[in-house]
Each structure stands twice: as structure tokens, then as C-alpha cells.
Amino acid sequence: MTTKRKRAGSADGAESGHSGHPVTMRDVAEAAGVSVATVSNVVNDKKSARIGADARQRVHDAVSDLGYRPNALAKTLSSGSSKFIGLVADAIATTPFAGQIIHGAQDEAWKHGFVLLVANTEGDPAAEEAAIAMMLEHKVRGVLYSTWFHRAVVPPEALRETDFVLVDCFEANSVAPAVVPDEVQGGYTATKLLLDAGHRRIAFINTTSSSPAQTGRLEGYHRALVEAGIEFDPALVLEAHPDQEGGYAVTAQLLQLNVAGVFCHNDRVAMGLYDGLREHGLTIPRDIAIAGFDNQEVIAAHLRPPLSTVALPHYELGAAGVRVLLGIDSAPTAGPLLVACPPVPRASI
């Protein structure tokens, strides 16, 4: 096919062709033997345009031969929306295991023809405001607003100017769409790992920090015991700072309870408990079986023995957030969409 590349500076949204020179709609129209309007209708997939199959095919052939690319900005301005989805996060890009939220959202966005625009604000309100403003200027399809740990938030008011979904967070007393981990199911699953191994006297080391994880995982622990016909004993619920030092510090108190298994609020607490039990000459899981929570692989998979735990579903949280935003999945009318926390059995039970 003979092609012509003239009027390179025309305002119809030219993009680079195979030779590196701009290709315009007029070039495509001349190559296909149709009008510029016809090219515009075909390129923008105007369903209402009455264009014959032969003319439509000639346009597609010319587009392919010339390497024409429609001007994305022009399409955005004419349609009122773009193929971008925004993601505003407080710190998840710098938190290795929570960064999976970005990965899941990005994969799901690509699957449906969208590109993810990510802004990591480190919790700075000014950066957050600027990021959302930029995304609104780019006419994003919507915004995912995410935090690196599950908690209640007050979403920025600017989010109300577009569709948005809260990811790994929620707005209290609000019907704002949100996607969060199922903390109750996760606590139930962690306790079941110990119960299914035959342990009956099971302690729970919970956190001192008030959070959905604190209350939800305790409820799941309680539910699993009751289901197994074991009376809940509040004396077997200990509190510790949610870190390695917290798990280590509570070891002596735990050993006074004569338990066979322990469900730790998170993997860092479990790591500290490993240290404390080792100092007392005890072996895991022969003397005490341990289950963690989070599946921080830099911890859980590399302890000795490797830690059985329950994973926070960060990847699926990101993917589900995109699906809710695009209307593929429906968020509940009351409360967030709960994403299951899967078990990750290893050798500590």
C-alpha cells in the first residue's frame, strides 16, 4: 500500500508511524480512500456510525500499515474518561509484603484494558491532595485509596469527585465501597490449623493496639474453639506489643499456662516467641506448636522451623478493588467486601 505522510503538524492527534514521522488521521484517510470523519468513527469505535464493512476494513489496514496511534489525550477529552485507574497509598509501595496490593491492582487493571497510576504519599496530606488532583485532571476511571494496614480512615474529600474504592481500609459509619481482609475468618483459620493437628489447649497472643485485626482475630479464635467443643478461657488470651520484642517478653507468662499450641497475632510476635522458647530449651513443634498471621515471607518462611501462618491477601485486595471499581464485582450495601485470608501450613505445627 502506498502511503503519504504530510501535514505532520495537523491538529487531529497525530502519533509516530513506523518511520518515526507523525502520522495523522488525514494520512490514514487518504491511504484508505475514505473521509477523515470515517477514520475518526472507526478509530473511536463509534457504534452509531453507518460504515460499510469494506471501508471499515480498509481503515484498519491503513492504521496497521502506517502505524497510526490515536491521541489518547484527545480521546480522553472527548469521552470524559480515560483508561487510567488511580491508586493513592500511604506507604504500601515501601512495605514489601503490602506492596502486593499494587501488584494485584495493576494485574487486574491490565486485564481490563486500564493502566494504573500510583502515588505513594507516605501519609502526607498535601501530597495526597496533589496526587488526587492530578488523577482527576487525567480523568481517571476512578481511584483506589489504600493503607498499608487494615484500619478506619476518613477519605479525602476530593475522592467524592470520582468513583473510588477503599482498599485495606474502610470509612466508619459509611456506605463507601471498601475491600478489606476477613480478620474473623483469618483468626478462625489460624486456630483451626492448631485444632486440626490435635491440640486442645491453645493460647492466643493478641496485640495491645486497638484495631480490626485485634478484635477480628480474637473473635475468630473464640469461634473456632466453640465449634470444636472447647470452652473459651480468657486466661489463655495474652497481650503483647505486636513485634518481635513483644513475643519474646510474653514467653515466661505463656509457659505458666501449660498450653500445647499458640496462635500469635502476627509473624513478628511468633518470631519473638521462637527466641523465648529456644532460651527455655523448648522445641517447636514438639513441645509447643505455633501459628502466626500475615505470612511475611521474609520472616515466616525462613524461621527454623518455617512458621505455619495465615496470609493477609494483599494481592487479592488490590485485584478485588479494581473489580469493584469497574463494577465487575459488587460491594455489599452494608459493610466492606471481605477477602479471605488463606492458610499457609509449614512445619511449626
TrEMBL record:
Region spans: Disordered: 1-22
Entry superkingdom: Bacteria
UniProt keywords, alphabetically: DNA-binding, Repressor, Transcription, Transcription regulation
Transcription regulation as UniProt keyword: yes
UniProt GO molecular function: DNA-binding transcription factor activity; transcription cis-regulatory region binding
All copies of domain HTH lacI-type, residue ranges: 23-79
Protein name as catalogued: LacI family transcriptional regulator
